[in-house]
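$ run holo --ligand "magnesium ion" --emit tokens
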Amino acid sequence: MATLDSRLVDVVGGRTAKALSTGLGLETVGDLLRHYPRRMSERGELTDLASLRVDDDVTVMAEVRSSRVIRNRNRSGSRLEVVVGDGKGTLKLTFFGNRQTWRERELPPGTLGLFAGKVSVFNNTRQLTHPEYVILHGEGLEQADAFAGALIPVYPATKDVRTWQISNSVRHVLDNLDPVPDPMPADLRRKHRLVDLDTALRNVHQPESNDDWHAARYRLKWDEALGVQLALAQRRAAAAANPATPRPAIIDGVLAEFDKRLPFELTAGQREVGAELTDELARPHPMHRLLQGEVGSGKTVVALRAMLQVVDAGGQAALLAPTEVLAAQHARSIETLLGDLAQAGQLGGAENGTRVALLTGSLPTAARKAALLDAASGAAGIVVGTHALIQQHVSFADLGLVVVDEQHRFGVEQRDALRSKAKQPPHLLVMTATPIPRTVAMTVFGDLDTSVLRELPVGRSPISTTVVPVGERPAWLERAWQRIREEVDAGRQVYVVCPRIGTGPETDEPDAEYDEPTRRPPVAVTDTIEMLQDGPLRGLRLAMLHGGLAPDEKDRVMAGFVARDVDVLVATTVVEVGVDVPNATMMVVLDADRFGVSQLHQLRGRVGRGRHAGLCLLVSEALPGTPSRERLDAVAATTDGFELARLDVEQRREGDVLGAAQSGRRSTLRMLSLLRDEDLIAQARDDAGAIVADDPDLAVHPLLAEQVAALIGEDQAEYLEKA
Ligand code: ADP
Ligand code: MG
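-- output --
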């Protein structure tokens, strides 16, 4: 008999085990049983052939309509053409080769089968060439037995391991499987009416009925949700138990002085979140808070006020930005906002002021030394930097607060590394302008409490977005360039964003999400600037900005743009986050379909920051009806970041969304959908909190502890201990 830990090779035999291992990375019985069917096909209920897309690797259930051998016209030989149908559409199966008579006999009209292969197009007809197949009724056929049930599982498969081969292996494994013990506490199972694990594992593969199948899936989703939430609950509990230096606000410090000079009123949201932070910073346990807010909602001011509170309490604050450009800009704008409050020890500096140090990887040695010294001595109350900040040799006199801007660029490990710079865990504020659906926040950032800035400060101008479909309307591109001229003539500035720096392989951000290797290479900054300079934008002042430039060059270009010495900035996504030039009112994104939905939303946030309305043109060759085009249309249709974030999550594999919180291994969430299973996740979060409150180390629940470890993976477990 077998257990979940048995090696497949000992259960299903060497050849099959090898195929499952190389094709799908499945090594143990547990691996195979966790390779869940994507869906159940009901016998008789056919696949929707009309929905098949070219290049998809598909398994379809369909019925043979006709089959005939055809002589090839200009070549010798013949081929067998079988047409299968499902009532909604048809699909052609083509088998080349002379000896197809046996196959013709095997596939007479009326035969029901599963057919697997890659969809291609020939003569305007969708077809599968040499599909593999299994016949579902047909007497004397061995494999028909394996599909005797009414429900036929369809597995994620590869071209080497077909769904029915997986199905056969699963059947064999289940026949030999010892009863699987259930880690879930019985009361929890009763409360949520969950089937036991043994039943769930059997019924998810071989259900008698649809109800059985759904009950099994529901239970397995619970396992995933509970596992993740237990790990997060443990992490929260451990973090909350840590001592932290309280940094209570004082009445007459830099913060009070800063508030007095603030040239605008804080929004209600800013005040509310500010009060939350003031309160949490004063506690003897570390704050862990995620601050979400649309681009331009004023997160930076909120963060700065928290930093000043910590400075007032004698501590230091570090602000971590994702790029050098952004770090430099943060440092500049913080210094501007602070004025003489940032010039402690200098002539004209305010008496109770502090200093702001900028620390990035590429500073000249002298500046770097000075910044390091300011951080180490405590002379700088605020230290702004990129990931260079978390390098080993940077030390702080008394780091009290870490602010991470634009979180999506930082891994959890990086956050932790910086936190470890303090003698005691510092307070942590993570800011993100990428709206995160609630359940994703609960899962990916489940160790953080969440605040949201919903309103934008008054006086913001709307951004209108238009898709420029050069696939169908090449002439519109000319119009776009013309529009840039008009904008510049009106005294304003423009961004042109490209997905790539130059002709080399380098990119600022390898945006693999939507990239396909077979397409033409994405438009590059270096080519585009030349093309524009010599052509449509001749006479305008153009400059380029990308991650390949030397840091002082980047600073120079950015400063030139801020000073309006540059009309049009041709750039990569380095301008995506935080860059704040109110006079820039228009953005043209080239090859816009190469960017993710949230990324485009983020990018266009760069325009419309001033008095004038913003305009964003998304240039793309994507044709109407394609998923790429639908994404762009969605971005053009709404400015609601949360809606777009949902779309983004739907379109990426959810495992990728979790990438930041998980190690590179296979996604641990196979069944749980962060969007559709919101209620379940919320319940699991409550239950996990209760379990961990009673049993922090899961000592009373050893099987659960094991399950958490398996789900989260070893690297994560280590990291949980570190926390
Ligand atoms: P975010 O970081 O959320 O994108 P910022 O904090 O950079 O937004 O704010 C964008 C701009 O709005 C800045 O120039 C900032 O000074 C300004 N700002 C922030 N809060 C307010 C407010 N309450 N009223 C008016 N302007 C504000
Ligand atoms: Mg910002």
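-- notes --
The first strand starts at residue 39 and ends at 42.
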